[in-house]
Amino acid sequence: MSETPVVKTVLVFDGDKTHDWVSLFKGTTLSDGTQIRIVQGSWVDAVVTVYGDSSGTIAQISAIADSNGLNTMNEKNTVSFRPDFVIARNQARGPTPKSDCRNVLYGLMTGNIPAVNTLHSIYCCLERPIMFGALKEIQKRLGKDKFPLICQNYYSTADQMIISPDLPCIVKVSHAHAGMGKVKVDDMTAFKDISTVLSLHNDYCTGEQYIQAEYGLRVQKIGNSYRVMKKIFTGSGWKSQFGGAMLVEEELTPQYKSWIDACSHCFGGMDVIALDILHGEDGKDYIIELNDTAIGLLPNRWEEDSLALRNLVLDRMDELFCKEIVTIAPPSEPFATPSSDLRYRGKRPDIPLYEDTPFGRRLISNNNNNNNNNNNNEQQVATKPAFEWINLAFGVGGIILGVLVGYMISARR
Predict the structure, then answer these.
(1) E strands, 344-400, in order
(2) Per residue in 332-349, is it b (16+ CB within 10 Å) or e — as a string?
(3) What is the rounded CA–CA span in Å between residue 68 and residue 389?
(4) What is the average per-residue pLDDT within 163-176?
(5) How many helices (H) and strands (E) does the chain have?
(6) How confident is the model at residue 179 (pLDDT cuts 50, 70, 90)?
(7) What whole-number distance in Å separates Cα of residue 239 and Cα of residue 154?
(8) pTM to 2 decimal places
(9) What is the DSSP string of 134-146?
(10) Contact 81, 55 (CB under 8 A)
(11) C-alpha–C-alpha distance, residues 130 and 123, integer Å
């Protein structure tokens, strides 16, 4: 009787029907032969339930594509399953309340479902101030000259909009991306006017100096794959999303690489990111925004970049599901014996390991010593039995000496 093959289900949030993730993963398996099932759909068509018992996390979605075939028994192709991994190619929160799917994200986070990028980083990047705060931390560490982040004001409510940035400026309202919720303000009168509009809602906003840009740049990183795109503005408006722009690939410079590599460590690590930069007519670069896993890809490079993402996902799933279990001695038992069968993969906690020999305990592994001494030969440590006998001899000798001294004193009396 043949065994049922092990299958891991990957939930892909990508509502574009022209993006065929089932075909991208077709024929792929994990390193141990585990098969991959792809279920593709949109955040707005998904619901999640997390049970406290062994049932775990259950997702239900109107699938665009499914490795098992679409469910033609119902009009919406609804399918229920337990997701093992998530790829988020769309944002969990759009500009309108109807497109706000954070509750689905919260459910996946409650179920501790692994993802690319991590669900924690996806959550943090939903709000502009959190993202910008991470960029400010990088600038603080590297310096303004090495990380030219644009100067930005934050206003928690419209009442705080008293002091403006350098004018003209760009006011960005709340969390929306892709040109939504942004307005160019030319003078202080217009700045006050926009504050009266914002007073009708309880939204935060940010303000930053308007940069007369010669061109824009996007530096993209997917795992170890980099791409730089130059955005040449072709329209009459200041927003490239609506005014029009032409994208041209550029060479990755050491400076661009250093910027995107620094950003990849934000929020515990981000595998898929893009950094937006403006090159001003003054010859200076201004970093304005960090984008996470929902970044748009060049249409003519979509398959190439998506394959890089697929390979990254397979590596992450291998690390999660195919590595052997490693047992580490607890702090109360610092000495491990061969019966513990400890094996290390990569960097592990610096716990010295010993084995018992007829001559006592011998050091067999110590990460600190290996790192400092460049994997020198194994070291022989002082044997435990020898120390025990020496201590015992001194103890007995001390008792005998004490008895003799006491006897001599009594005899003299």
Answers:
(1) 353-357, 360-365
(2) eeeebeeeeebeeeeeee
(3) 70
(4) 93
(5) 10, 19
(6) confident
(7) 21
(8) 0.76
(9) HHHHHHHHH-TTT
(10) no
(11) 10
